[in-house]
């Protein structure tokens, strides 16, 4: 996903901490950031999330488990992911 942004947004859910940023830097909520990545680079994001699932060993997590955790801070992203990749969610349960 390198190079997906000309300006790197700061990814933090507490946006009030980022009221005064240097010119050219934009703070966005993680939910919005992940939705942008899903729209702009879906294959790269799917690969990154798949790699994350495969590295989770203690405790191991399925894709559904990981998405359920993501939903706590990024519910719009999880909804958009499940709409875009319904087969991935189903395969994770198999």
Average per-residue pLDDT, rounded, comes to 81
Uncertain segments are 1-12
Strand order of the largest sheet: 1-2
Query: Sheet bearing the most strands, described?
Result: 2 strands, parallel
Order of helices and strands: EEHHHHH
The shape, in one word, is globular
Report strand %.
under 5%
* SS-based class: mainly alpha
Give the termini distance in whole angstroms: 28 Å
Question: How much helix is in the residues?
Answer: 40-55%
Oligomer status: single chain
Return Rg in Å. Answer: 15 Å
Total helix count?
A: 5
Number of strands: 2
Description:
It contains 5 helices and 2 strands; from the N terminus they run ββααααα. It has a domain at 30-93. The protein has helices at residues 30-40, 42-55, 63-70, 75-84, 86-93, and strands at residues 10-11, 27-28. Strands 1-2 form a two-stranded parallel ribbon. The chain has 94 residues and is mostly helical. Helix 4 packs across helix 5.
Short recap of the structure:
The protein is mostly helical. It has a domain at 30-93.
Q: Could you give the topology of this structure?
A:
Elements: E1 10-11, E2 27-28, H1 30-40, H2 42-55, H3 63-70, H4 75-84, H5 86-93
Helix pairs in contact: 1-2, 1-4, 4-5
List keywords for this structure.
two-stranded parallel ribbon; single chain; 2 strands; globular; mainly alpha; 94 residues; 54% helix; disordered N terminus
């Amino acid at each position: 996903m390198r190079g997906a942004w000309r300006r790197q947004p700061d990814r933090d859910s507490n946006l009030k901490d980022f009221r005064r940023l240097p010119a050219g830097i934009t703070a966005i909520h993680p939910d919005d950031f992940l939705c942008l990545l899903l729209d702009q680079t879906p294959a790269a994001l799917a690969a990154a999330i798949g790699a994350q699932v495969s590295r989770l060993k203690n405790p191991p997590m399925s894709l559904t488990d990981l998405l359920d955790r993501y939903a706590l801070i990024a519910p719009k992203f999880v909804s958009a992911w499940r709409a875009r990749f319904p087969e991935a969610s189903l395969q994770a349960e198999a």
